[in-house]
């Protein structure tokens, strides 16, 4: 086992996953080096990830980041689903008992800045404009060449290398991790609208158009995000107030992929570098932060070799769940649509089904972190 006192850890990527890993290591007395090709945190008005679930708040509690997030985030009271204007199901999360709301909304850029503040307080600063150019050596003794924007560079030999560098991970590709999976044919569209006064942000809403879906997610007290599978979705939006201002528009595709192992030798992967899936369910960033916190604890305990074995079951479970939810949102066969519209209202009468949904929304359907006390 590598001595923790002599352990040098290089983290590639300073998004929420890399920052959470660095923070969890630093508060345990292991100061990592963290590099990122970007010039800083993602812009708040272009943050794809919005949801912060209760599991993430639990994990970030000891560092103090959870209280920072809770002070700025919008708590969501539930999810309302309807079909062609007719209510199907309301999932109430307001009664969830746990480390904060089941789900809160805070743009990824804001979450990154709060993590960064906590990290700086522990005297760790990401090295921006610095990318992993190549990786030589072996997985047990990686040699990493770093290049900066001014073309200066260096080769380092960390005790451990962590790829938290996103879906197109250089670390994953350079170290030969397989990334099997498939992509959906559907295109998804996104638009953020700002209003001249606060609007109702208590619930997320999903409207099925049979076929097609339009979801509305709060971003700020006066900003709503609309996500749809329909190219003309903006013509279908019923704005809560006049004078809506479009602040951001984008589109994306969805893939379901995960590595077959999350570590090889002294090289580890976390977050989107290890697994990608649909944003439905708001699990992506949260699952990555969960990876980071587990890895930091295992490293501090000298048990990092157990990382892949402990994390892959949770990853597979979340991918199965998000695939199922995405299939429900994108189905287009009349018989399937009719069946969905009949089954969803029945779930309101099944207490166990609602509890399971709320636990999933809260992210509490993955293994409890053994280093924290968790109320039953």
TrEMBL record:
Keyword hit for Flavoprotein: yes
One Gene Ontology term of the molecular function aspect: FAD binding
Domain annotation FAD-binding: ranges: 7-220, 239-301
InterPro entries for the chain: FAD-bd, FAD/NAD-bd_sf, RIFMO-like
Cofactor section: FAD
Pfam families: FAD_binding_3
Keyword line: FAD, Flavoprotein
Name of the featured protein: 2-polyprenyl-6-methoxyphenol hydroxylase-like FAD-dependent oxidoreductase
Organism: Mycoplana azooxidifex
